[in-house]
Here is the input.
Amino acid sequence: MHRVSLHRDRLKSVTVADVQRVATTYIKPDNRTVGLYYPTEEPDRAEMPATPDVAALVKDYRGDTTLAVGEAFDPSPANIEARTTRITLPSSASGRHSPKTPSAR
Here is the structure.
């Protein structure tokens, strides 16, 4: 609750000059998009389809087979280091690769 009160109290100290300064800084012609609305007497609107009956759609749904569970990953530095492959190119550039699974190495 203190955070809300602090924010409210800080907002009370904002002046018109503060708002004008920020507006001048950030509201620029190149940073805006202008939209114009031209009403017509007979608008050509797309017809919206009826809302589907979700219960009827999923009534006989059984789903696909369950996917295999991923590995239990140990995020310790030692495990990450053990799975990391390092290469150095002739240009002295270097790279590292850590496969998603230990068997991909």
Observations:
- The helical segments are 2-12, 16-26, 54-58, 77-83.
- The two ends are 52 Å apart (CA to CA).
- The chain is about 30% helix and 10% strand.
